[in-house]
Write a structure and sequence with these properties.
The chain is an alpha/beta fold. It has five helices and seven strands.
Length: about 190
Amino acid sequence: MPKIVIPYYSASGHTHRLAEAILEGVSLVNSDVSLINVDEMSEEYWSLLEKADVIIFGSPTFMGGVSGKYKLFLDETSYRGYWTEQKFVDKMAAGFTVATYPSGDKLNTIFQLAIFAAQYGMIWVNNCDIGNKVSSSSNDHNECGSWLGVMATSISDKSKMISDDDIQTGKQFGIRFANSVNRWFK
């Protein structure tokens, strides 16, 4: 079974909640999945990342891009020689983000994550949930209308952090992603 790692950073808990939703969806299909808070990186976590077949990157959108702490994590992969040694080539990848506003310039964060994956020669898996705005038989998923990656909007209810619809979008993406991974690694 392919090893899936979800390295994320969450300043206030919103991105962590979306990471959990994606993890929940992935876990329905693939049991070898780990969450890594990049604010707590250890040699054990770096080892998990190196051994992963699949990486789902997650950062909040701060001021129109990945958070500073997440950028430090991304840069550290290069300092560790992952780029020059091509350690991520042909691993599958995806990305997710959360911001305060429905737009919140979240697309730029997803662009940054996708370009990072492309520079490493990774295989990017996008979001494909069209939601009920287009298909009345579909649930209220993908409210942000994001196709390159998964996006959510933070809400003021701190017991939830993101809406139930965004949680469902994360779960659905996790299922889709894990199924894609399993097809790729047959």
